[in-house]
Amino acid sequence: MFVSVLKKLTRGNAVAIRYLLISVAILLGLCFAVDAYVIPTMEDSGKIASTGWKAENEKLLHWMHVRNKADDVNPVWRSDLFPVSAEKHTKKRILVLGDSYVWGHGYSNLNTIWWRQLQLELERRGYHDVEVVGAGLRGAATWRELGWAKKLIPEYKPDLVVWGYVTNDPDEGEQIAPTGGHVCKALIVPKDEDFPERATKLMEGAFPNLAEQLLAIRKKRRGEILAGDRYGWQFGDWEQKIVEGDNFEHYKKTVENVAEFSKQSGVPAFYITFPNAVVFPSSHDKNETFTGRAFYENIRRYYEDRYAPVRQAFTLAGMPFYDILNDFIAYVSSHAAPGSESQKFLYLINPVNSHPGSLACHFYAVKAADYIEANYKDVLGPRTLDKPVSNLPVINDCVPSDIQLRQNKEHAFFVYPESESDLLSMPLRKPFVLLNLAHATRLSEIKLIGEQLKEGDISVTFEEPTKNYDDGIPVELGIKKGGSSCWKIPDKYAAWPVSSVRVNAKFKGANHGIILDMIPTAGAAQ
């Protein structure tokens, strides 16, 4: 029946139908090529963000919630592998207060977060008897951080408090709303009622990467059209508006309260700014089109417009406010290869997450250490440059965190998950267990042993000696088969300390237990 109807419909139009089918086939083939090859390749090079990093970022947020035990009652970053107590175990202690920049939004490695970088930088300078404690939660504004400070300072007894300043910190919405005042909102784009949901699901099912790009363009355009008092302002505009009008008048009172509490506590304190690449949409800053010097001048303009009123408020309140914007621009502009300035991998923790990456976090730590040495040196304790440093690799963070990790001076043991669906996979695009070292350590070889281990695949990241931070780019050591395998660190990286190890494994039975041996380079000074 169907065949006869089709013959009637195509009688006399065979050539036209043939060309139509060929055209559709070519179009589908092009869509497949763009979806499966072009977009992932561009994503891997850091030029765009798509479904690979979007899914990865969701996993990163999940595992940070799981392993970081910080909450509103006690926002101190702590985990099973990184315990922190109110009792001091060093002569000196620095408390770092903040929001998601402290909590670790989008980070796979605890030690990349800026306050951990500060700890490592101080140790590098010879200050081994000072502990850096980080406290913060996602979305915390200054007024909320002040509440924590009032509790944590008497309990943890720091010798110095470092407050991180981020451009959304002046949000006083939760303080203003109960009074009936006008709340300045960030944009939340409502559901797209004009685009059929069935069409969206069909596109996402057939060509997920291509659909992500096309739908993102539509969402961005809808955001530009709908932005305003009703739905909220685009994030870049919102960050400007909260340092104006009623919101900023409330914020100036918060700043005065912070300064007053700081004086009453008797503990020295200062603020430090955290500039980064401009990634937030606004009606004035079109960062996507800028390269070279224009890219950096756009950063300067964006942050200076939002820092200037706040800097004045802190100055009037008598609270030290260390603005590192100009130094940041000078630093990153000298470290980016010509033509690569706007690549997100250079500045962001991942292409779909605007939080600072390893370069920015390390720079914040260096500037904070400089400022502390110049103004609060007595809070650092004795300087012992000749103190021997252990070269034993110690894991202080892992993803996932529920792998029953145990370790001693010679071995680490963990259970590789039965399902790989929740494991991280980017940028390698293959699942792995991630093991992060408290201190980057020069290794000669890595061994895997498992009773039912079928094959292992190892990759590592390094702390480049000339940079003193890990840029997060893994070096693959390859696949080896069998229940006991050894990987040599390539000669090219013999002098580079390893900061993280990624393990992908396959098994021939239900026993997924693995012994991991990380063999330090003989006589290596870390």
What does this structure look like?
- It is built from 14 helices and 18 strands.
- The N and C termini lie far apart (79 Å).
- The strands form four sheets. Strands 8, 11, 13, 14, 15 and 17 form a six-stranded antiparallel β-sheet that branches. It has a five-stranded parallel β-sheet with strand order 2-1-3-4-5, with helices on both faces. A five-stranded antiparallel β-sheet has the order 9-10-18-12-16, with no helix packed on it.
- The chain is an alpha+beta fold.
- The protein folds into two domains: 273 residues, Rossmann fold; 126 residues, Jelly Rolls (Sandwich).
- The model has no long low-confidence stretch (mean pLDDT 91).
Keywords:
526 residues; five-stranded parallel sheet; Rossmann fold; 14 helices; Jelly Rolls; globular; 39% helix; six-stranded antiparallel sheet; alpha+beta
Question: CATH class of the largest domain, please?
Answer: Alpha Beta
Q: Report the C-alpha radius of gyration, rounded.
A: 26 Å
Report the principal-axis shape: globular
Strand content: 15-25%
Q: Which percent bin holds the helix content?
A: 25-40%
Q: Which parts are unreliable, with pLDDT below 50 for 5 consecutive residues or more? A: none
Please give the largest β-sheet: 6 strands, antiparallel
CATH topology-level name of the largest domain: Rossmann fold
Let me know the number of strands: 18
